[in-house]
Amino acid sequence: MILKEKTKAILKIIDVARGEGRKFLLEPECNEVLKLAGIPVAETKVAKRRTEVAEIAKEIGYPIVLKVLSPQILHKSDVKGVKLDIRDDKELFKAYDEIMANVKKLCPGARVSGVLVQRYYPRGREVIVGATVDPQFGPTIMFGLGGVFVEVYNDVAFRVLPITDLDIDEMIKEIKGYKVLKGFRGEKPVNFESLKKIISRASSLILESNDIKEMDLNPIKLYSNDAIVVDARIILK
Question: Of 91, 120, 149, which closes a domain?
Answer without folding.
Answer: 120
